[in-house]
Amino acid sequence: MATEGTTARGLYLRLLRDAHRWNQKDVAAAIGVTLNTISRAELGVHEPGKHLPRLLHALGGSLEDWVNLEDGSLDDALQMANRRIDLLRKTTPDQLRNMIERRRRREN
To answer: Is the whole-model pTM more than 0.85?
Structure first.
């Protein structure tokens, strides 16, 4: 799964994307960036920068996880991604809608 040179943050993004069964093109279109932006973020070549909040939101990721993975290992990324994926799978559609609405209110 992880390729040589993959960073913990890049692996975290890829695992979350794979859990949604999305390809990089799907994610890029969903958040309004290029395919190259997603590819480079997953490879750890480039940080998503200003796109990070939208990217994490779309994938169900956590900013706390992202910060903690700055110096993290690939095993850390795997554990954090699996924890987020388990949480997302246990969330009902109504709970998910409420979470999204609360996030939107906080952003405004």
So the answer is: no
